[in-house]
Design a protein that fits this description.
Blueprint (H helix, E strand, L loop, with lengths): L1 E4 L3 E10 L2 H5 L6 E10 L6 E3 L1 H7 L8 E2 H4 L6 H8 L3 E3 L5 H10 L5 H9 L7 H11 L4 H5 L25 H7 L15 H12 L3 E5 L2 E5 L11 E7 L8 E6 L4 E7 L2 H11 L4 H4 L3 E8 H7 L6 H22 L3 E5 L4 H8 L6 E10 L20
Antiparallel strand pairs: 1-5, 1-6, 2-3, 3-4, 7-8, 9-10, 9-12, 10-11, 12-14, 13-14
Helix pairs in contact: 2-4, 10-14
Bound molecules: flavin mononucleotide.
Flavin mononucleotide binds next to strand 13.
């Protein structure tokens, strides 16, 4: 019997607070606490509780080398060892199960361990973000902001006003004008479809590769948006609800061919329900006729930046850059756009058939024609979109 533990696992000491009758009776004004060790493994979907024996046993095993029970100072019938195998944290070389497969796949992807654990365990499934907000508001008598008290000042100052060097302002700039008109849209037109030209323009400006170049044996892409190492690991997966001449359903965008790859057709009601679920019930965003899921191909980024402390950050930043380009492309075209990180990543992976550790969801955007009436709040203090 040869054993190995999973590649990435972090032990967290979790605490549960509660009211203790004894403390109350003793007139001690504090909550009672209970602690437990929880293993967060990058290949497992859920945290796993561990006891002291299991922690001792897993600590005797290597993440890279297969060892015998004897080498690890264990007996074959060790109860804690059996529990760890049951929990999917320890494997026998010939094990064939979902946890072992997931751990093996992860090893090929060159993740930084902490980033892998954070990515896996910060994903949502089935969250209703609107209901969560309401619950939070009710907790504080409908005044959650009053409970939070004053935020840190919006402007950070490092000197007296008279010490500042005033800079010239540009009188006339198409870019500054475009930026001033970029307003996150939460009021999409529910009338006719988005035109195919508008739809294609926004995708072309944001995602299309302008060139494919061989740089010292590595094929890299040139786009209008910057990307760490020129790798462009971000893929656009689309949920199309109402675009002229394109059937509703799920698609993937091909960056070199500037074309859609159909994945699954859906009828109008199903696609709208799915949009709501993926967007954590933000209905005002789910109304967008074209919804873009920003998916990072970690395998491509981490192929170069192996176990690199900055690689995951770079992957997320790539999406931020692309999202701003999409916002500006839509704004130039007179369309509205949004971006949100409040999404049900696990539900999105399921819909598009993605392994979260190979191709992970970072956020979701969308675009379409603006509605003539404002039902939902938008941030437009300069009245660039809404007259009052
Ligand atoms: C990372 C990120 C996450 C966001 N998440 C949400 C969201 O969950 N729901 C939403 O309606 N808007 C979301 N937004 C949009 C912001 O609320 C919006 O940018 C902000 O209110 C300022 O408005 P503006 O974009 O019109 O300037 C997000 C924006 C960013 C960059």
């Amino acid at each position: 019997m040869r054993l190995r533990r999973c590649q990435f696992m972090v032990l967290e000491l979790r605490e549960r607070l509660g009211v203790d009758l004894q403390l109350l009776l003793a007139d001690e004004p504090r909550l009672a606490f209970q602690t437990q060790w929880v293993a967060l493994a990058a290949h497992l979907e859920r945290p796993v509780t561990l006891d002291a024996q299991e922690i001792d046993v897993v600590g005797r095993l290597s993440a890279s080398e297969w060892v015998t029970c004897e080498e690890a100072g264990l007996t074959r019938d060790d109860a804690a060892l059996a529990q760890l195998r049951e929990k999917g944290l320890v494997f026998e070389a010939s094990d064939s199960n979902a946890a072992h497969d997931a751990d093996t796949r992860l090893r090929d992807c060159h993740w930084h361990g902490l980033a892998a654990v954070a990515h896996r365990h910060l994903r949502w499934s089935g969250v209703d973000s609107i209901a969560e907000q309401q619950r939070f508001a009710e907790l504080f008598d409908g005044q959650p902001m009053a409970h939070l008290q004053q935020p840190p000042a919006p402007v950070f100052e490092r000197g007296a006003p008279q010490q500042r060097l005033a800079l010239p302002k540009q009188p006339d700039s198409p870019l500054l004008d475009l930026l001033a008109r970029r307003i996150t849209c939460r009021n999409f037109d529910q009338g006719g479809p988005l035109s195919r030209e508008d739809f294609a323009f926004v995708l072309e400006a944001t995602f299309r590769a302008l060139a494919q170049v061989d740089v010292t044996g590595v094929s890299v892409l040139k786009k209008g948006t910057a990307s760490a190492g020129g790798l462009h690991p971000t893929e656009a997966y689309l949920l199309i609800q109402n675009v002229e001449g394109i059937a509703a359903g799920l698609y993937h965008y091909h960056v070199l061919d500037h074309a859609l790859e159909p994945l699954q057709p859906l009828d109008a009601a199903d696609v709208r329900r799915l949009a709501s679920r993926l967007l954590a019930v933000q209905e005002y965003l789910a109304d967008a006729p074209a919804i873009v899921v920003y998916v990072s191909r970690f395998e491509r980024n981490f192929w170069k930046y192996r176990q690199h402390a900055k690689a995951y950050r770079a992957a997320i930043l790539d999406v931020g850059h692309l999202s701003q380009t999409l916002y500006l492309a839509a704004t130039e075209r007179g369309l509205g756009a949004f971006f949100t990180a409040a999404v049900n990543e696990a539900d999105i992976e399921q819909a598009f058939g993605l392994d979260p550790m190979q191709q992970g969801v970072i956020g979701v955007g969308g675009f379409g024609r603006r509605s003539a009436t404002r039902r939902e709040i938008e941030f437009d203090p300069l009245h660039a979109v809404w007259p009052d």
